[in-house]
Every structure is written in structure tokens, then in C-alpha cells.
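Title: Prediction job returns without error message
Component: structure pipeline
Severity: low
Priority: P3
Assignee: unassigned

Description:
Job completed but the reporter wants confirmation the result is attached to the right record. Sequence as submitted:
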Amino acid sequence: MVRFVKKPYVIVNIVLAGVIVMIMIYSAIFSPDEDEYPVVCIHEKITGEPCVSCGLSHSFSLILRGRLNEAYSWNVYGMRVFLFFSLQLIMRVFFSFCYIKFIDTRKQLIMMDIIGSVLLFLISFRQFFIYIFQYC
């Protein structure tokens, strides 16, 4: 089992899962009621105008607390992005397990992972891309 942890694919999955868990912990630690998030929107600080990602921290914190209507009011895309990260966490565990268990299908597994992750990313962050290209 230890030798599989040294495989680059598994290492990348462990790192990505760790980052996602840290995002979830960040969202759980900071209270949406106190509004003391250490990460602020640079775009809003410079221009005074909110961007498409403004309120995501609030939204994530509220989603973790089950306050979905409030989360939607902070950022309409918050649930979509939160689901992306949640599904990616599940996918990192699932694909790592399959990579270790099914040695003969590793190439197909990695291709399925890449295609699925890219499609999920494009669907989840579609509005962010539209926003970026509108202001370029």
C-alpha cells in the first residue's frame, strides 16, 4: 500500500484532497455572522464594485451550516462551486482507490478522471469565465 502512495497520480490526488479539506475547514471556522474573513476581494477593494466571486466565503460558510437560502443571497454561484469542490473530494478518494485496486485500467481511469474533472470544472465555473471575458 505504501508503494502506491509514492505514485505521482496518488500524490496529486492526496494534495488536491488536502486543499479541498482546507477550504472546507476555512469555511467552517469563520462565522458568516461575524464577517471577519481574512481573505478579501481585491477587485472590490480596488474598484468598489463586487465581482462574480464576491461572497463565496460567506456562501460556503452558510452552506456548511445548512443555511442555503442565505448562502444563495451572498453568491448565486456559491452552491455550484461548493458542489464542485465536494464532488472533487469524493472523486480524489474514489479514483485513488480505483488506481490502487485496478492496476490494468489505470490509463483509462486517468483519462476518465481528467475528462470528468474538466467537464465538471467548466460547468461549475462557467459564469466566472463569462465574467472574465466580458471585462477583458
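Comment from assignee: result matches the submitted record. The CA atoms of residues 14 and 92 lie 7 Å apart.
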